[in-house]
Structures are given as structure tokens and as C-alpha cells.
Amino acid sequence: MSSERPEEFSQPSASSGPQTAGDHRGSADDSAHQETTVLVRGETIRDQDKSPRKEVSEAKVKMQNRLPALDDDADVGVTKEQIVIRDGKADLAFNGKLLASAAPSSAPKGQWQEYRIYETHGGLHVFSKVTRSVFMGDQDTHVAEVFDPSPSSVPSQLLRSARDLARSRPMTWMDAAAAFFGYDPLAKALYRKVSGQFEERIS
Fold first, then answer.
1. For FRET with 2, which of 22, 30, 88, 193 sits at 20 to 30 Å CA-CA?
2. Dihedral, CA atoms, 196, 73, 104, 86, nearest 10 degrees?
3. 45 pLDDT band (50/70/90 cuts)?
4. Which is more confident, 34 or 85?
5. Hey, is 120 helix, strand or coil?
6. Would residue 69 be called left, alpha or beta, if left means φ above 0 and alpha means ψ between -120 and 50 degrees?
7. Can you say how many angstroms the Cα of residue 110 is from the centroid of all Cα atoms in its chain?
8. DSSP string for 5-74
9. Contacts of 95 (CB under 8 A, 6+ apart)
10. How far apart are CA 87 and CA 90, in angstroms?
11. % of the chain surpassing 70 pLDDT
12. pLDDT tens digit string along 76-94?
């Protein structure tokens, strides 16, 4: 840019050379030229920032406005036929109850996650993680896993860490939930709704 400015300044001074009063004009022209450059740059920046606005789903916006409340909050503890959606896998259908659900209190960027823990009539546990977006072009994502306490269960074996295998204590559904959800603030809020036993006890 430093190489461009001398060229810009030399052109007005050459054309206004014969005029003795043109020195002030030249400096005024230079400042005007600089202002124009700033304006052009400003417009360019605005054009770059002005990306097309995404269309939003009215139904999703209503869901966002209700956070942290979820549509199935009234179903917590109620035994009924449940369907848990999974992307890339068969959906899970079972008779059981929703033990707990958690969602953030707000979603300022139009995206949020919902965590759920179910218990089937047969004693299995289902963990569900849904990522939602208010924008029409963004698809919601659904991830879910089943925890079977049976030692022969493949998912149960996969979720067990080397430390768990070294210990005699069998893996519980709470261990599996922590392996699935982790310990982010939303997961901790979910655990508090289910049980107080998720904390690590120290003496």
C-alpha cells in the first residue's frame, strides 16, 4: 500500500503544477481521495460481512424460546412406548420411561443440545443426544446408545475402560452415561436430575 500512495499523490500534483494556489487543493484532493478509499474499503467490508440471512423455522424458534423446558418434560417418569431417533442407525423403539432430560437455558446462536436418559421395561438404559438448530438449512442430529449391563453385551464391553476391566466392580449404567455424555455443564445438570451418585467421592 505504501507503494500505491506516492503514485496517487503524484498524479494530482502533476496536473495542478502550474497553479500556485493548487498546493492547498492538492492536499484537499489527497484527503478527499483518502476518505474515498476509506469509504470504498468500508463498503467492501460491509459487502463481505453481509452474508445472506438464513431462513428460520418458526417451530424451532418456539422450541428455542421455551428453553430450558422441553416438549417431553411432562413425560418424565411415565412408562409408555418410546421412540428414540438415531442418525445412520435404526431408531430405538421400546416400552419404558424417560428418567431425566436437560437443555441449556438459552441458545443465542440458534443451536443447542438436548440430553436424555431412558430406562426400558427390561432394565436397559438408553442415552440420547440431540443437537438442534433453528435454521431451515441445518438438520437436527440424533445420537443414541443402549447400555446393557450384561457382560456379554458388545456395547457394554466397548464402553468399559482399561481401569474398569482391571477392577472387579462391574460397569453400571451411570458409568456408561458418563462415558456417553461426558462432564460438560449440561451433562452435570442431567446427572443431578437423575441421581446424586455421579459425584466423585473423596475423603
1. 22
2. 100
3. very low
4. 85
5. strand
6. beta
7. 8
8. HHHHHHHHHHHTSS-TTHHHHHHHHHHHHHHHHHHHHHHHHHHHH-PPPPPB-HHHHHHHHHTT--TTGG
9. 79, 80, 81, 82, 120, 121
10. 8
11. 64
12. 999 999 999 999 999 999 9
Category of 110 on φ-ψ map: left (φ > 0), alpha (ψ -120 to 50) or beta: left
Number of Cβ within 10 Å of residue 171's Cβ equals: 20
| Low-confidence winner among 3-12, 78-87, 171-180 (lowest mean pLDDT) | 3-12
Cell numbers placing 155: 456395547
How confident is the model at residue 157, as a pLDDT?
52
- Cα separation, 26 vs 10, in Å, equals 10
Residue 23's identity, in one-letter code, is D
Mode of pairing for the β-strands spanning 79-84 and 111-120: unpaired
Peptide bond into 185 cis (omega under 30): no
Cell 470504498, located at residue: 40
Question: Starting at the edge strand that comes first in sequence, how are the strands of the sheet with 92-102 ordered?
Answer: 79-84, 92-102, 111-120, 125-133, 141-147
